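Hello again,

I reread your note about wanting to compare the complex against the isolated chains. To keep things tidy I'm splitting this into two emails, and this first one only covers the full assembly. Below are the input lines as submitted, including protein chains and any nucleic acid or small-molecule components. They are followed by the predicted structure of everything together. The single-chain runs will come separately.
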Amino acid sequence: MSPNMSDPIIVFDKVTKSYDGTTQVVKSLDFAVERGEFVTLLGPSGSGKTTTLMMLAGFEDPSGGTITFDGRPLNNVPAHRRGIGVVFQNYALFPHMSVAANLSFPMEMQGVGRAEREERVRGALDMVKLGHLADRRPTQLSGGQQQRVALARALVFRPKLVLMDEPLGALDKQLREHMQLEIKHIHEQLGVTVVYVTHDQGEALTMSNRVAVFHHGRIQQLAPPTEIYEKPANAFVASFIGENNKLDGTIAARDGAQCRLRLSDGSEVRAMTGTDLPVGAPAVLALRPEKVLIGPAAAGENRFDAVIEELVYYGDHTRLRLRLGGSDSFTARLTFRDGLPALQRGERIPVGWATANCLALGPEES
Amino acid sequence: MSRRNLLAAALIAPLLLLVTLSFLVPLGATLYRAVDDSEFSTTLPRTTALLRAWDGKDLPPDAAFAAIVEELRTAQQNQEAGAVLSRLNFEETGLRSLLLQAARASARLAPPVKDSLIALNPRWGEPELWRLFKRATGPWTSLYLLRSLDMRPTDKGIVHAGAEDAVFLPLFWRTFEISLIVTVICALLAYPVAYTLSILPQGWANAGMMLVLIPFWTSILVRTTAWFIILQREGPINALLLAFDIVNQPLTMIFTRFAVYLAMVHVLLPFAILPLYGVMKGIKPDYMRAAASLGAPGWRRFLRIYLPLTMPGVAAGSLMVFMLSVGFYITPALVGGSGDQMVSYFIAFFTNTSVNWGMAAALATLLMAMTALLVIVARLIVPGFRSGNVKV
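Full-complex prediction:
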């Protein structure tokens, strides 16, 4: 049976994983990855993202459910027959083999002839710009070079899917940003499907077609980066991705896509709501610090008076910590095109924001 | 030297002293003993001076005849002749009685002493005997080292012993054969044990490690004695085999090569397990996972990745076992037969029983040199000896 090329390449169907039989590390995963997609599994440590990757690679067996890859179920298919490339966090380059031998290894396993192997090894090393280091041992290479070799090794045998488990975690910041772009370009160039695990949200947002945010063994949201950032599905996503002010309250009234949220100090805020929160349900108001307006700009429905608790100058922006809506750590991130306004600690200022920029969110899925 | 350097020197001084006294000095003394030849020149100084001046052709001057008889008699009276007599009799059996005969007759020998001596025993007229004496004046000799290799120095150069007279070369060969077989068995047994220990959960691994270490902490003598009892003709193994009618007469196990292998492997196995376990513990599971993701089935993962990565552990353990095996004494002496004894047995024999320290030292020196040579060769040809850098 030949898989239909328009079908998803990976389908997780009610996949669960438990190591001890009682606590589930992964709770009923249902999602699909399209061919050629770059999907990032993002979450804090212990959220189940790495376990999900390990089940896909075949290093762990699901406790329940089915993973389908390229049209066939993966249950009982051992890792070495899956044909999935993996880039490991610490690269796992074989230290007793040269760089070229490392790259040649998967093709030897496939029974590719020597001449073709050598040619493809050269091609893969040229792709990651390391053609001159073919005869070195992995231990003689820098971290960034080892990372590229690991990448080349996972791609050289032409897998349909490449898994990457925090591949840039061991690199310094500058190199990491450079490699992010390089991986992105290779992905675009080869059209291979990539499932990428990271706990770095910046990495997830810049590289992926879609991001799956993991927490407590569940996907909290699976969406393109803009949607993850602009329209977080729940309070966890809102706080995990970027920075958010969170104010606790209850839904006072609903009006289509908008609602009125009553905060703990009694004041009411108009907010967008995507989730089906009923009137009277507890909800969290999420508002990005850069969306907060002060002074005369703070006009419209959501307008409050707040006291400046603290002022911190960062050069390109200034952060205000405000007492507002029952919280004394409400943050505003201000950038000024026309110089600094005269603000002082303890000053009472008008604060506001557009309704479209704030969300009333339910708690995370668990 | 600054205060700091003085303090550092003071801190390492006790260790340096210990190493010097317990290792370098005995080692040096052993090497020295293997080539030292001072018995003749110490006991018979005048004869030595005359023989050293002699050109070695025909017979030495008459004075040498008179001197050797005179000095032998004095030494014999002062009970100082034992060492030189043993030394000469070792080189050629019968020289002890020849010399004692001359010493006893010395008072009755009419001058010229040369003619009287030759009349007493015609051997005194043979130039070969005198050339042997001249060689024995030292100060160095290759006699012991050559004898340890079944050769002997003569007037006409070095003579090899015939195959039927060879003693020590077959002994060295046997020593290395037994050691090599013990090493191979230990490596084969240790590999799965160390692997199992390395993948067990920590609690079980600790318990398993205890099973390895408890025998390790028990004295070699105790463990060997236990095998001595177990392998007896009337011992528990034979009793069991007889009771279950597996054999109808007791098996001969004690005093066989089998018993030597069994007991030596038992004693040395921990030395192979411990370094292997350490190396295996350090191999990250990601290597094997990577190999699997690259399409390698289990046996190819083992042969291409795991085995090469664990070779340094195999090499370290094997080296340890081999070096210890080569010097084994107690175990073959207790459970082996006369044909299973190793070099150490003869070193002990020459030290304690025949009191020929020259031979003991020569055997020890050669054993050390051959072992060192084997280890160097092994380092060159066996993969994994050099920090896991294996050419694939």
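For quick reference: Helices of chain A lie at 49-57, 99-110, 114-127, 143-155, 173-190, 201-207, 225-230, 235-240.

B.
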